[in-house]
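Support reply, case 0932

Customer input (verbatim):
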Amino acid sequence: MTRAERIAERLERELGAVHVAVEDESHRHAGHAGAASGGGHFRATIVSERFAGLSRLAAQRLVYAALGELMSSEIHAIAMTTYTPAEWRAKADG
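Our regenerated output:
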């Protein structure tokens, strides 16, 4: 299982996410100081009802909490976009 797959699996499980897409962008950061620790750079789209009523910052904090120890071992940086299922459907219809 790749790191991106482990991250996606964790987010699906911990957040009850109905859609998770994780892209490993580590190759774009080769030579970056953070890459020396072995942690990767990722971009994630996460759709979960758990984000309903939360500010963007609160939703991101929820994601960081769900990732737990992966943030200090497998992940150096993660860019994320969070949606509720209703927001995700509206985006698809828009």
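We compared this against your earlier run and they match. Two observations from our side: The helical segments are 3-15, 56-67, 70-73, 85-93. Residues 3-89 form a domain with the GMP Synthetase; Chain A, domain 3 fold (CATH 3.30.300.90). Please reopen the case if you see a mismatch on your end.
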